[in-house]
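Re: the 281-residue chain
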Amino acid sequence: MIDLHTHTNNSDGTDSPRELVNKAISIGIKVLGITDHDTTAGWIEATETVRGEISLALGSEISCLTEDGISVHMLGLLFDGEHHEMQVMLEETRDGRLPRMRKMIEKMQAAGIDISMADVEAARPMGATLGRPHLADALVNKGVIKSRDEAFQGMLNNDSIFYVSHAAPTPVEAVRMIRSAGGVAVIAHPFASLRGQILDASNFQELATAGMQGIEVDHRDQNPDERAMLRVIAKELGLVVTGASDYHGNGKLNSLGEYQTSPEQWEKLESLADRRRVVRA
């Protein structure tokens, strides 16, 4: 099994990197992508846990905004973790999350919802990249909603009146930075319409021209028709097709390994990095 998109408690997952790697080993995953939002903070602990046959494709899920304000997530895998410009971009993106969260909370308070920044901080693990899932957890704790999934289908959806974007690179800028750092760029769940606005099929040519190498096709938030369309786009543009769980631990319904990447597609994707950076025991 090859699962290239997962999260730890260094962003909005609930498992530590060590716990995540151990779970992956226990269910027979051979290649695990650890892709916390806008950070590489979990890489060291994950690397220290590797044993047996599992290998790690370390990376990050980079929060992006198109020029017309559509939220896009770009997976960067196998890049140089010490690449200075990449780390600066990740840090600047993380820094934009705090004012964004405050604005979302202000909107909710104005609508009469009992929520505060202190509630969100109480729901966020120490050192984790701040994100909407932590606001969702705070709303669950306060009894406003029942689950993260309910939040992202309603109050925290990209089209919600409470949604606020934050400073972030464009998808093209993120792709170019990933490539500059020697990694591979795969767009995450681009047709996940339940999350709000999505890309148009015409957007993929620009991203491919910028250097994007893959599309995450098999993902629970994309229906069969959307996946079929993405396979056509990937074939037309010569892009790698991936599948992944987008696992977050207890925070979401996604099960580790529920969608996977084929060994052939993974081999092709790995070969496109500027050097072999897969972590093995």
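The radius of gyration is 18 Å.
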